[in-house]
Design goal:
Distance between the termini: 29 Å
Order of helices and strands: EEEHEEEEHEEEHEEE
Oligomer: single chain
Structural class: mainly beta
Shape: globular
Number of helices: 3
Number of strands: 13
Low-confidence stretches: 1-22
Length: 238
């Protein structure tokens, strides 16, 4: 199974039971036009500066009938003022009967690849994990983008991701904010660890985040629109 081309390009998610008391659970239907491609759900817990988040990616029944790819991941770490510092990450990818895993551990913010049992294409040069200090894992990145945020953190996401082979960057800017909600625009950019073909197809993927203001004054993501190699996709909160 080819790795997802961007943070959300796999676009098939569903709920994984989270045994601890979750401080936030969110579910998003994923659409390409009128086609519902899947469901994204994550569950997260925060205790002081510590966070733990788990999610799973699964296709809708229609999509699964011709492409049954599933993705599950979990991450733990510390966060402060919207900046995340993971200390462990694991993921499992299922493609039909095939199962593969990856695992990262962090020391002083630097990832170490503990496990990566998927094939890396011969035209890909993996990024050295030792050079990726300060990056976050894919699950933490998804959580950072889709979670409910306080006023002072709205549209403030700016981080680099590393999945064990590839480095990417995410940057979000404010478009508008008001009493009812906020609009942000961002870009997901491939940086290193991709094949020449991947980079020739597209390097940057723009997206837009639309938030509703919650009763407690925080901002809850209502919708995300993102350009992918397969066309425009939309995530709508349930």
């Amino acid at each position: 199974m080819k790795r997802p081309v961007c943070l959300l390009t796999a676009l098939y998610m569903a709920f994984v039971p989270y045994t601890a008391l979750a401080s936030e659970r969110a579910a998003f239907d994923i659409f390409f036009g009128s086609l519902r491609a899947g469901l994204l759900i994550f569950a997260a817990e925060t205790r002081g500066s510590a966070y733990a988040v788990r999610g799973e990616l699964r296709p809708s029944p229609l999509v699964a009938s011709f492409s049954d790819g599933r993705f599950a991941a979990e991450a733990r770490g510390e966060s402060q003022d919207g900046r995340f510092r993971p200390n462990r990450y694991s993921e499992e990818v299922r493609a039909g009967a095939s199962v593969s895993n990856a695992e990262l551990r962090y020391a002083a913010g630097v990832p170490r690849l503990e496990r990566y049992d998927r094939d890396v294409p011969p035209d890909v040069t993996p990024v050295d994990p030792a050079s990726q200090g300060g990056t976050v894992d894919p699950m933490t990145a998804i959580y950072a983008l889709l979670r409910t945020v306080p006023d002072e953190e709205i549209c403030g996401q700016d981080f680099a991701t590393f999945d064990g082979v590839r480095r990417s960057e995410v940057a979000v800017e404010m478009v508008a904010v008001g009493e009812e909600g906020a609009e942000c625009e961002g870009t997901y950019t491939r940086v290193a660890g991709y094949s020449p073909e991947d980079l020739s197809q597209r390097r940057s993927f723009p997206f837009r985040l639309s938030y509703d203001r919650a009763e407690d004054g925080r901002f809850t993501l209502a919708e995300m629109r993102i350009q992918t190699l397969f066309g425009a996709a939309k995530l709508i909160r349930r």
